[in-house]
Amino acid sequence: MHVTMLGYDVELDDELVEASPDELVSQLAEYERGERQLFDLPVRLPDSFTGDVMRAMLDIPYGETRTYGEIADAVDSHPVPVGQACGRNPVPLVVPCHRVVGADSLGGFSAAGGVDLKRALLAHERDGDTEQSALDAYR
């Protein structure tokens, strides 16, 4: 499924979301308008390392970030494979891979729009704060 979020096109594998396409689009629109902080959409996670990382990402609250290293500690791994798993996230936005950042940078973002979209999503969740203040708030 192709959706637009904050002016960027994002591809989601809606077959992994156990809700109707209309419900998915509705909740994404509520998030974009600032009316929703938590998605009420069950997601089928892969039974793999990527699924473990996705599960850890689902635990990151709205408006907060975790580093690749913190996620690596949570799943008993290392930051580089965590970053690779984030890049394989088939349902960005719903599983908030944008909330995973580098220790000293935003890190990457594989969705269309790349780091610009990641920056926009973090700013959206931080009421328009800059990239640096969003990172500083969680160190």
From TrEMBL:
Record's protein name: Methylated-DNA--[protein]-cysteine S-methyltransferase
Reactions the enzyme catalyzes: a 4-O-methyl-thymidine in DNA + L-cysteinyl-[protein] = a thymidine in DNA + S-methyl-L-cysteinyl-[protein]; a 6-O-methyl-2'-deoxyguanosine in DNA + L-cysteinyl-[protein] = S-methyl-L-cysteinyl-[protein] + a 2'-deoxyguanosine in DNA
Domain of life: Archaea
Annotated EC: 2.1.1.63
Keyword Thylakoid in annotation: no
Native source species: Haloferax marinum
CDD domains listed in its UniProt record: ATase
Keywords: DNA damage, DNA repair, Methyltransferase, Transferase
Keyword Endoplasmic reticulum appears in the UniProt entry: no
A single MF term (Gene Ontology): methylated-DNA-[protein]-cysteine S-methyltransferase activity
Biological process according to GO: DNA repair; methylation
InterPro entries: MethylDNA_cys_MeTrfase_AS (IPR001497), MethylDNA_cys_MeTrfase_DNA-bd (IPR014048), MethylDNA_cys_MeTrfase_DNAb (IPR036217), WH-like_DNA-bd_sf (IPR036388)
Domain Methylated-DNA-[protein]-cysteine S-methyltransferase DNA binding: 49-126
Principal EC category: transferase
